[in-house]
């Protein structure tokens, strides 16, 4: 990545650093022809007191200053090097050095801490910046289940009429990607591209003062921003160099974030060489009771279905071993897990296996024979994560060389057995702040310990294996995994914590789907028994998962599901390559409905889903001009094998009750979709 730093004269307030503030360009999109987009280059300004500002369009982060976590930060002196855009803060113990620069894509910020033998808990190169110009922000959750998305910046109540504590101050943390959005959708987004050694976190918060009796009147309100890294008081050899922070500007917001994600992917050599996933997973019908007999039934049932179901993988989930005893199967697989893998492969499918590398059951050999392999709390007691009636579950300390070697042995053995699909679960158990636990081998950050494990797993399973990471932090997985669960687990009952979380997380993270990895929305239910949601809700979840280009999995035995469910499963079969997904009004917060669509270039047609998330009843009209940039088109109500012509229309006006959805096939050609056409543009037998 080319970089250049230079300064130019500005007002007496400081020194400006950066490129010309605006650079615009247009590109072709699948859905709407030529769309005008702008890249807006952020611009630094260094002030004489050592503070600095960043401006992008109307958005400004003003008068920021670095900090060292909760340590007092009082420089003895501040040195500014105008030629390099460098600020040095000489402290009583060490020196903090910032370099503010510009590259071809935007601005960057480098940080070094010199002359110290121990790192602070946190280093914030940019802290207490006064934010102006934005009315929304994007926050990314730590990982699995977020919460992520575009949110309004809360506005304080100007006048309070009752005596109460003011509760309108707020603070939100964000990871991986963070951004600020102006009313016209100009967006300032930032991220680090290196997550191997330090957790990167940004915080946006408010400060408020009031005056008058009962705090009636608003006095001042400010919104502040900080961004930095967890350094966890690790030992140093006199120098700490932190990852570069990159700041990008542009509009529309979705494209700005996607461009940042593409840079992150390139920096981490992300490989997107595997087809979208379409497979069977045992968990959501059998949970831990899946055994050899049920595996045989699944394989025999698949063989009986004509035409064949084109799934890639049969994956055995939790239950084949006690947590930690990964190479010592329970009696449920008395012939051994290797024999089960052979049967899956012989049936013509890729063999998949569930592993939770950081979990240790009190029934396992690790707990009983190697108590020193268990992670300890600050009092020296094993970290107890789960407490059940029949067992306790603890956390593996991978800083112990023998524990690390054991996990390596596990994944090496599974690869030798022929496993080529890995679902690793509860990975967040292995990401524990070094300030809050005692490890067998101290001295590194939580990010480094975690990264060493996931890097080793990829080495052992090989680049050809497909790896799905579940219940995981996102940052250290970039460049290593093929898919990541983004939303909460889905059970067949509609709740805010599960179904709605999945829908909103899939929408929020669409800009990095098939850029960093394949986003996984969890499971599709084909069975009609043991379901607490309605058929319409089940259809909504199924179509949402499919049109969002996520990983597609089911846990239902295909030979037992109704014929209509089997047709639906065939209908959502993915193509060999993912298609671009568009989320209408992606940057609008608090949506009651979602519209997502794909373009099928071979047919010059759009597939579009309208989903009513919250409204009791909606019959809102959406013009095709606003959605797709076309005036009129032939529109079909599209169900598997049953396209129903609605006529040549200029708008869509579905009548949807809460949680219902409507799938459309839209084309400028009078030719109807073939009855055997799948949602992803693939001709499929059996629809």
Oligomeric state of the chains in view? single chain
CATH classification, class level of the largest domain: Mainly Beta
Number of helices: 11
Largest sheet: 12 strands, antiparallel
What portion of residues is helical? 10-25%
Gross morphology is: globular
What structural category characterises the helix and strand content? alpha+beta
- Number of E-state strands: 45
Count up the domains: 3
Descriptive labels:
single chain; alpha+beta; Beta-galactosidase, Chain A, domain 5; TIM Barrel; nine-stranded antiparallel β-sheet; disordered N terminus
Compact description:
This protein has 687 residues and is of the alpha+beta class. The protein is built from 11 helices and 45 strands. It folds into 3 domains: 265 residues, Beta-galactosidase, Chain A, domain 5 (Distorted Sandwich); 243 residues, TIM Barrel, CATH 3.20.20.70; 86 residues, Sandwich (Immunoglobulin-like).
